Fold this protein.
Amino acid sequence: MLKYKRILLKLSGESLMGGQGYGIDEKRLSLYAAQIAEISVFGVETAIVIGGGNIFRGLSGAAKGFDRVKGDQMGMLATVINSLALSSALANNGVKAQVFTATRMEPIGRYYQKEAAVEALERGEIAIIAGGTGNPFFTTDTASALRGVELEAEVMLKGTRVDGIYTADPEKDPSATKFDEITYDEVYRRGLKIMDLTATALASDNRLPIIVFDMDTPGNLKKVLTGEKIGTLVSC
């Protein structure tokens, strides 16, 4: 009954904070791990990219006086910390996961190569890909689109704290209305900031559909994979 066999799941670093103002909320981390474990038993090949904004965001650091390149490198390291935490939480749920890093960091993680990541997926392991693209000036959204295209994922699932894409920020504008489906062209035309333009263009050019959904509600990840109409589908 599964709609997708291979997915790229993008998780927000900020979401890992839960109700805290900084760092990793163990309850939120366990919630995410449980949802991923729930789909792994169905044989879904799952690659994951996590942001690092709960620890350090390069762009924000640059605004405070950090060198932009060094700031982005610090942000990349933050994604590695989050990836290791998720790997540990998955192990606690009986799920095998392997952390790959965009730059060499053995023995912390295995250096990312497409072939190695695909082999891990085909063995039934979760491939957690850390370190962004390995380059400054690129976001983890762009890294997610890049890895999704590289690994030939059927869909990119963007897990957030809101239940889809709206005409405006629903947390600030109560009159905002939700899209069930939207095209990339309309995202551009309306100026909707679901991801940065580089990530959106990469996904659009390679016809990688994106589903934006609420990851904080238990069971939602499974619902998306079984084809329930939750969240917002972005496609060509």
